Amino acid sequence: MKTIYDHIAANNRKTWLLLLLFPTALSILTILATVLAFYAMGDLRFAAQFVAPHQEFLLSHNITITTGNVYWLAGWFFISSYLPFVFGVAIIWMLISYFCGDTMMLSFARALPLQKQENPQVYRLVENVAIAAGLPMPKIYIVDDESLNAFATGRDPKHASIALTTGIINKLEPLELEGVIAHEMAHIGNRDIRLNMMIITGLSVFAFLAEMIGRSLRYPISNNKDSGKIKILLLAVMLALIVFNFFVAPIIQMAISRAREYAADATGALITRNPRALASALKKISSDARVEILDGKKTMSTACIADPREPKVAFQSMLATHPPIRTRIKRLMEMGG
Questions:
Q1: Annotated active-site residue in 118, 127, 178, 184
Q2: Is 184 a catalytic residue?
Q3: Residue 47: helix, strand or coil by DSSP?
Q4: DSSP state, 115?
């Protein structure tokens, strides 16, 4: 029988492998798109313009330019010339998200801060779980919705928040609610809150770049005779970004989110030493997890303990961000100490 520690280690390894797929898949898609564009144009002279400045590099690596590889080399060098700009935009965007992302997420959910005197029992539960997890006390927020859901956010354990719906507070038994809080505390301790913001921000950067490229195609690039061909290359990159954002990235994001949910379940069970309480809570949550205000907030779904969107959207989709709750319950019930 696998122990809690086995589940945590396996899911952590899977997450890092999946994260590597983001830059790998994007690089492959954009290079293939530009190579196909060069082949479609069939202009060796035009392709050679992108390869010629790198002859010293090619010679040092014993790479000979031929009619068979010039389009591949041109595609590679064309994409690599834009990487500094892409990384610059991504870094700026991620810094904004790093410092403001949690405020935005709490605002999306219309979450309000909970003072200790307003609900001492919930405050003590969070405090006790934080102590058991060896983490700082997070801020507590309440989402005014009678559904059963919760999420954690923040850039690190020192700047973390846990949001609970009024429904999850009122409808769960204390031990079940403790299990949910431990699950969210696990997301904080495992740095999933930062990971979620990085993924959401990274995807928005590429969507923004695709939109900017699309807008730039409306205007003349230069007065030289190759301006039309450069536009074809930019169009190829834009299409690659669109394919990545709408088809490839959601699959990777889904896999990462599922791995992190399994890891948070296992870590939460480790914190409370009571996997059955969290399993019982998940069973109740599965009956009413929808938070109406988050129906249109697809990016928020990865942060919640269960997908907060309308059931037909959340659970019937092949790209559901959460693993089936029955599977999560089964895993929790099978965990040893």
A1: 184
A2: yes
A3: helix
A4: P
